[in-house]
Amino acid sequence: MSLKSVLIVAAFVVSLLVVGGSHAQQTNPLDVVPDKMPFDIAYGAPISLDRADAVIAAAIAESKKRDWKLNCAVVDSGANLVSFKRMDGAQLASISVAEHKARTAVKFRRETKVFESGIQLTNFNYMTTLDDVIASRGGIPLVEGGKMIGAIGCSGGTGSQDEVVAKAGAALIK
Questions:
Q1: CATH number of 42-170
Q2: Angle formed by the axes of helices 113-120 and 94-108, to 10°?
């Protein structure tokens, strides 16, 4: 064997060891144990009808400003529907999706975008096995004084459009 051939074989073996070694050292991100509970928001008193209507009005105002036709739902801290509006021309399939986004956001105490990102960006496909999850942005918790009082869900546009409108509604709650 020539020196060149020996060097090529040696380089190949070293590259296999490096790749194999680095692959074996990777930790599963699901094995990480956080010090604190993530999304640890206490549930508070349920949002009132007047406030839920105001949240939806703000969301619809944003939607109209952009000429988007959406469905908007607000649920209380127990995931029960409090208020709903379907804009003229909004797709019918999104009626239940808007409510589902709101329920998911309040039950899991996080934006539904977290599930979307978990599945699409980190391949946490186990999330699809969790009851009542919808992995599409547009569900935003409504938190007041550190307590979950409800959530808004918007649907009918792209996920990013739904999220913009839901955040406009959620901005009313401080």
A1: 3.30.450.150
A2: 90
Give the total residue count for the chain: 174
pLDDT per residue over 109-125, tens digit each? 999 999 898 888 888 88
- How is residue 6 annotated by DSSP? H
Other Cβ atoms closer than 10 A to 143: 18
Of 163, 146, 174, 154, nearest to 40 (Cα)?
146
Alpha-carbon gap, residue 171 to 165, rounded angstroms: 10
Residue carrying the six token digits 């296999």: 16
Residues 53/83, Cβ–Cβ less than 8 Å:
yes
Calpha distance 169→151 (Å, rounded): 10
Q: Is 31 helix (H, G, I), strand (E, B) or coil?
A: helix
Tens digit of each residue's pLDDT (9 = 90 or more) over 28-59: 777 888 888 888 899 999 999 999 999 999 99
